[in-house]
Design a protein that fits this description.
- This protein is of the alpha+beta class.
- It has four domains: 33 residues, no CATH class; 186 residues, no CATH class; 53 residues, no CATH class; 90 residues, no CATH class.
- Helix content is 47%, strand content 16%.
- It is built from 16 helices and eleven strands.
- A seven-stranded mixed sheet has the order 1-2-5-4-3-6-7, with helices on both faces. Strands 8-9-10-11 form a four-stranded antiparallel sheet.
- Strand 6, helix 6 and strand 7 form a beta-alpha-beta unit.
- Helix 1 crosses helix 2, helix 8 packs antiparallel against helix 9 and helix 9 crosses helix 10.
- The radius of gyration is 25 Å and the shape is globular.
- The two termini are 40 Å apart.
Length: 401
C-alpha cells in the first residue's frame, strides 16, 4: 500500500507540486473507494461467472460457497475451479501424485488461494484445481479436498495416492479425515527451513539433504549417524517430524515419484503472483488464461522432442549414467547382479533386472533405473530405455495436452 509520505515525495518529484498531507489522504481515499467499489461489483457477479464457466466448459466443476452463518445476506465464502479438460488430462497422462498448497492474495482484498498441482510425464507442474477461500483452515481444506476427491475419482480413502504439502495443520487434519490411506509427504524444504533456524552450519545443511534423499534405510541411518557426530541435538530436532513424511528411504514404493519437496506448487504460486493482486473474477480469468497459454506452449514443445523419453527425465538419467564410472558389476544368477561402488565407503547393492529392483531402493521408488541398474543393463547389453516406466514417455506427455 502506498504510504502518504512516499506519495507526497512522488508528487513533488514528478509534478513539482508540494501538496499537503490532507490532500494526499483525500486523493488516496478517492482511489481506494473506486477500487473497493470495483472489487465489490465482482463479488456480486460471481454466480454469473460460475454459470458462464459451466456453459463454456461442460463437465467442469465450478463451486461457489456462501457463509452458512449468514445465508440471508449472501456473503461470499469460497470459489472452486476444476476444468474438465484438466481433469481428463490428469487421468490420461499424470501419476497419482498431487501437491497441495495455499498462498495469500496480494491486493487490497484479503483471502487465500488453495491449489492442487500434479506432475506431468516431464516432471513439470500440471495445475488440476484451485480455490479462493477466506483462509487456510481445517474446514476450507476439507471442502477443497472433498471436491478434489470427486473430480479425480480417488477411491479407497486415497490408497495408492501420494499427497505432498507443507506442515499446515488444517491440511494435515483434512488429510487424516478424507485421505487416511494416502501417503502424505511433507515438503523437506519447509522442514529444513524450520530446522535451520537453530542449526545454521552450512555443512549440516549438506547432511540434512543427504539424509532426506537417501533412498534406503541403511544409507539413511548411516548419514543420520554422521550428522549425530556433529550435532546430536540437530538429529533429535530432525526426527521430531516422522521420517515417513519427508525422508525418501521411508516412502512407499511404486509411486514413480521420489520427490521430497513441494516445489511444483511453489512454482505455480509464483507463476500467478500478478493475478493475485486482482479481485476474484479478474483473478480467475488471469489464472485461466495463464493455464491455457501454458498448455499450448507445452504442446508445441513436445512436438519438437526427439526420442521416446521426456527431456527432463533424460537429464536425470544422464546424471545416473555419469555415476556408473564409479561402480563395478558382477553377474549373480539370471537377471541378477551385484554392483559395488569403488569409491567412498564401498557400498554394495543387488540388482534384479527381471523384477526392476535394486536394493538401493531408487529404481522401485522413481520408476527410473539408478546408476547400479544402468551398470547392470550395460553389462548384459540391453537398452536403458527398456527399463524406464512408461509414465515418463513422450507419448504419455502428449496424451494430457
Amino acid at each position: 500500500m502506498w504510504k502518504i509520505d512516499s506519495m507526497k515525495a512522488t508528487v513533488l518529484q514528478d509534478m513539482f507540486a508540494d501538496v499537503s498531507t490532507s490532500k494526499c489522504k483525500h486523493a488516496k481515499k478517492l482511489v481506494m473507494d473506486r477500487l473497493m467499489c470495483g472489487m465489490k461489483n465482482e463479488y456480486t457477479r460471481v454466480f454469473d461467472y460460475q454459470l458462464e464457466l459451466l456453459r463454456s466448459n461442460p463437465g467442469s466443476t465450478i463451486a461457489v460457497c456462501l457463509d452458512p452463518t449468514n445465508m440471508d445476506q449472501n456473503i461470499f465464502q469460497s470459489f472452486y475451479v476444476c476444468f474438465n479438460a484438466m481433469k481428463l488430462g490428469f487421468k490420461a497422462g499424470c501419476r497419482k501424485v498431487i501437491g497441495l498448497d495455499g498462498c495469500f492474495f496480494k491486493g487490497a482484498v484479503k483471502g487465500e488461494l488453495l491449489c492442487a498441482i500434479a506432475r506431468d510425464a516431464n516432471n513439470q507442474m500440471y495445475p488440476v484445481a484451485w480455490a479462493v477461500v477466506e483462509k487456510e483452515t481445517k474446514e476450507s481444506w476439507k471442502w477443497f479436498v472433498g471436491l478434489l476427491i470427486k473430480d479425480l475419482d480417488i477411491n479407497n480413502n486415497g490408497a495408492g495416492w501420494v499427497v505432498i504439502s507443507d506442515q499446515q495443520k488444517g491440511l494435515i487434519n483434512a488429510m487424516q479425515d478424507y485421505l487416511p490411506n494416502a501417503e502424505h509427504r511433507m515438503c523437506a524444504r519447509h522442514i529444513y527451513a524450520n530446522w535451520r533456524k537453530k542449526h545454521r552450519s552450512h555443512e549440516w545443511q549438506k547432511f540434512f539433504w543427504a539424509i532426506a534423499k537417501a533412498s534406503n534405510k541403511q544409507d539413511f541411518n548411516y548419514r543420520k549417524a554422521k550428522l549425530a557426530q556433529e550435532t546430536p541435538d540437530g538429529v533429535k530436532d530432525i526426527m521430531r517430524t516422522e521420517p515417513m513424511h519427508w525422508a525418501r528411504a521411508f516412502f512407499q514404493l511404486g509411486s514413480n515419484c521420489e520427490s521430497v519437496d513441494n516445489n511444483l506448487c511453489e512454482s505455480f504460486n509464483h507463476s500467478i503472483v500478478d493475478a493475485r493482486f486482482y479481485p476474484i473474477i479478474s483473478m480467475q480469468e488471469r489464472i485461466r488464461k495463464k493455464i491455457l497459454v501454458r498448455v499450448q506452449e507445452q504442446r508445441a514443445k513436445s512436438e519438437k522432442w526427439n526420442g521416446t523419453i521426456c527431456p527432463s527425465i533424460f537429464k536425470k538419467l544422464k546424471a545416473s549414467i555419469a555415476r556408473t564410472q564409479f561402480v563395478e558389476v558382477l553377474w549373480n544368477g539370471p537377471g541378477g547382479f551385484e554392483v559395488k561402488h569403488i569409491n567412498g565407503r564401498g557400498r554394495q547393492y543387488t540388482v534384479n533386472l527381471d523384477k526392476w529392483t535394486c536394493s538401493c531402493g531408487y529404481f522401485q521408488l522413481a520408476g527410473l533405473p539408478c546408476c547400479h541398474a544402468i551398470s547392470a543393463i550395460y553389462k548384459c547389453g540391453k537398452k536403458v530405455d527398456d527399463f524406464i516406466h512408461p509414465c515418463y514417455s513422450v507419448d504419455v506427455q502428449k496424451k494430457y495436452i
